[in-house]
Structures are given as structure tokens and as C-alpha cells.
Amino acid sequence: MRLPLSKLGLAAWTSFCCTFIKTIMIVLIAASTSQAQELNSKANSTLKSKLNFKRCQIKHKSVEIDAECGTLTRLEDPNQANGKTIDLFVVKLPSSSSTPEDDAFTVIQGGPGGSSIDLAIGLRQALDFIREKRDVLIVDQRGTGRSNILQCDLPDQEQLASRFDREQTVKLTQACLSKLKDNNLRFYTTSVAVQDLDAVRQAAGYEQLTVYGVSYGTRVAQHYLRRFPEHTRALVIDGVVDIGLNLAGAEIARRSQDAFDGMVKRCSETPSCFEQFGDIKQKFEQLRQRLVEQPVELSIAHPLTGKEIEHTVSESDLLAAVRFMPYATESTALLPMLIAYAHAGDYTPLATQGINLTESLSGEFATGMHNSVVCAEDAPFVDINAAAQTSATYFGSDMLKGIAAVCQVWPRGAIDADFRVAFDSDKPVLILSGETDPVTPPANGARAAAMFSNSKHLVIPSHGHGVIGRGCVPFLIRDFVADANLDDVTSDCIERERAMPFFIDTTGPTP
């Protein structure tokens, strides 16, 4: 049985996608450094109480499901007993069993900056398998979703320079800071978030959690295991951010280039793709240069509203498509066609894709939380040679430059002293990687497997970022979670997975 991406995978597919869209997203990517420190949660303990759940409906876009909802009040600064408080929004999806297990299953979204509750709505069918035996408990991480979201508006396209502009980046970051001035942005890091998660577990009355994290959510899941091993039953980490991995620019640029090169190679080795489109890399480079020199003004129907709009097709549209479409095999299959059509003068498919990507990120992405996480946990540790490592990539060093600019003005966040230190655990860890993941490739999962002695690493053939909704993977997770036993995970079924064939025109692949 295959669960369709449209119902299961879209939320996971978009996780971690918010790291960069050239100049459009560069202002959204950073925060500044901090002294590593252990966070004092004693003051917060006075706020802990039982969660009082009430029946509710939770909605994401057009999907609405029944649930039980509650809020848990937490100190924004864990060290200030009389300081500002924030409410964490918590959802419980009760088990269908009359005698559910004592532990609960939780999901943690990526980004950083995405809503875990929205992710759970997107994964509702996979979670139904989990709910056969246990409750599902989800909290929107502080600063995201329904938990005091730290959100700044994306600038309009006319506000953006065609290439990285440090002065503009600082100006837009300062505008974001001004909007969020009533929040202490130092306390929206992973180290604080895992304290919140365990407080939610305790207030909800569960002895342990089985934690699923995707992308950046895998970082949260691993740090929760580090801090609260006695309350962790098992981990499922999907699209792994391994301990010590730096997300502040060079890594993403390199992995994106690898994914693009892999797509070009596959197209060149696929007769129908190569015969139809020729040298895609050459066409990409020529198209990019053309759009840098002269963006194209276009009147098109908005892909969501159908309303006629004016859109300027620029280098940003092209780089957004190349950056994000490889996240899923279905959209990778469209990429050579989009590049070739635009190269031939038909810019409508590329423009439509650019609008879709930009708008999917602008409405729900928690800019401030993303910034506080990335620059507290990544930017201080950027290798001084990182810029040289990006010189051969299509993104170059613009991401690193953008982060450096934002970090000069963003408040410094707090992280635990051992945050980036490798550790082991006897708890079972199921590690999932997509073979063609353009941001957290299987090599990341292999490093996590080498760190965790009680782990199993599965690489799902032909798929990209976030594989929980792919093929038989939901059933593998169900079987693992049932008894927290890696021996129950028999993975022969994943070998049936295949890449989506390349579209040769708008009607689809070659029959």
C-alpha cells in the first residue's frame, strides 16, 4: 500500500525548506552567537501543572481534524521566575484503543520555524497507525505555529536587490526585530524547547515519549534524548541533522549543488530526457545569466487565485526552483522541463513555481524563531574556510554573507554547553534517509548511526527529504513504535521504491 504524498508527505517535504531562497529569504536566516550555558529550569517548575484538554478542531489550510487541545504556560526566560510568560499550544490525538499504552508519540517539525501541529495534520493517516496503541501528543515549539509565533513578513519583490546586498539585509532584519521587540529572542533555541517538551509530557501525564523528528526536528529529538533519557522511549529521526552539523550556509550550498548535479546526470543518462532537453546544466547557466542581466516582465494567472497578475521572473525564481524542487521525486521530475522551457523563452511554468514556493513559505514560517535557532546553534561555529567550500556551487557564498550580516544585529541566544558534543544512548533509534535528499543526505544518517550504538539506518531509494509518507515507511514506523524494537523493522519493502520519470512535456513522462 502506498500512501500518497499529497496526503502524507507535503508537510514533511516542506520542513527545512525555509533555509534559503536567494535574496528573498536571506534576511530570514540567522541569529547571533551566545556563550554556551546550561539553562536553569527551576523557575519554570513553579508553572507546571496538569494539562486540561478540551475537544477541539485543528486546521491547516483546507484540512481540519478532531483533537483535544490545551495550553501550558511557560516562562519566556527560564531563569526569571517573575518574568514574562508564553503559552504553548498542545494537541492530543487520543488512541483508538480502549486501553492505550502509558507513553505517547510526538512529532517535531523542521524549518526551523515550522509548526509541529500542522505537520501532524499532514501526517494524520500515518499517525492513525500509531494511534492503534497509544496517544499522539504534539506541541508547537515556542516561537512557532500557535505558540507565540515569531513571524515577520517577507519583503515584496520590488524591495529586493537582484543580488546579495548587505545593507539591505541589515535594514530588513532590523525591521523584523522592531516587530518582535516585545519578545526576548534569546530564549527560543533548541535547548529551551526540549525543556518545554518535557514539561508538556509531564503535564499531560505520560511517563515517556517516543519522538519522531524530521529535518531540524531531528536535532530537537536528539537533544531531548540527551537531556531526558529516562523519559525517552525511542527515537525516529527522518532526514537527519547529525550532531555537530552546521546549517549556517556552506553545508546547504554544497548539498544543493550535489542534488542539482545528480538530477543533471540522471537526465543525461535517460534517453527521453536528454533527447528532449539536451544539456540541462548548460541551459541552466545560460538562463541564469540572462535573468541576472535582464529579468522578464510577465502577465500570468496567479497559480492559487487565478487572478491575472504582473510578475517579474528573476534569478530568484530560478534558484528557488533548483533549490527546493529536488526535495521530492515528483517535483524533481519537472525540473529539466522548467529549465528548458524558460531557456526557450516560455517563462510561465518557472514563474508559477517561483510564486508557489515563495507564498508557501511566507504565511506560516516563524522567522524570528528560525533566526534565534540558527545563529545560536550554527553561525558561531561556521568554519572560516566555509566560503571557499561554496565557491563551486550555484549559491556561492551569499548564504554565509547573509547570515553574517543578520548576526551582527540579532540578539544572542543561549544553548547548552554540551549541545554539539556527540553522545550515545541505549534507547532504540530508527534513522531514515532519502537517497536523493538535497539537504540532509544519507551521509548524515550514517554519521548518526555511527554515534548511536542501538540504531538502524534505512535509506529509501529514489526519494528526497522527509520519507515518512513514502511507500511502506509508515508501516515500518508503526511496527517499530509498537514495541520499540529495531528487530521488528524488516525493510525489504523499501526496495520497491522508484524515482518519478522525467516529464518530457506538460502531458507527462514518456509512456
Keywords, separated by commas or semicolons:
511 residues, alpha/beta, Rossmann fold, nine-stranded mixed β-sheet, two-stranded antiparallel ribbon, 11 strands, globular
Summarize the structure in words.
The chain has about 500 residues and is of the alpha/beta class. It folds into two domains: about 5-245 and about 415-490, 3-Layer(aba) Sandwich (Rossmann fold); about 255-360, no CATH class. About 40% of the residues lie in helices and about 15% in strands. It contains 21 helices and eleven strands. The protein has helices at about 5-10, 10-15, 20-25, 40-45, 115-120, 125-130, 165-180, 190-205, 215-225, 250-270, 270-275, 280-295, 315-325, 330, 335-345, 350-360, 365-375, 385-390, 400-405, 440-450, 475-485, and strands at about 55-60, 65-75, 85-95, 105-110, 135-140, 210-215, 230-240, 295-300, 310-315, 430-435, 455-460. Helix 6 runs parallel beside helix 21 and helix 8 (about 190-205) crosses helix 9 (about 215-225). It is globular, with a radius of gyration of 22 Å.
Topology, element by element:
Layout: H1 5-8, H2 10-14, H3 22-26, H4 42-45, E1 54-60, E2 63-75, E3 85-93, E4 104-108, H5 116-122, H6 124-130, E5 135-139, H7 166-179, H8 190-204, E6 209-214, H9 216-227, E7 232-238, H10 250-268, H11 271-277, H12 280-293, E8 296-301, E9 308-313, H13 315-324, H14 329-332, H15 335-343, H16 348-362, H17 367-377, H18 386-389, H19 398-407, E10 429-434, H20 442-451, E11 455-460, H21 473-483
Parallel strand pairs: 4-5, 4-6, 6-7, 7-10, 10-11
Antiparallel strand pairs: 1-2, 2-3, 3-5, 8-9
Helix pairs in contact: 6-21, 7-19, 8-9, 12-15, 13-16
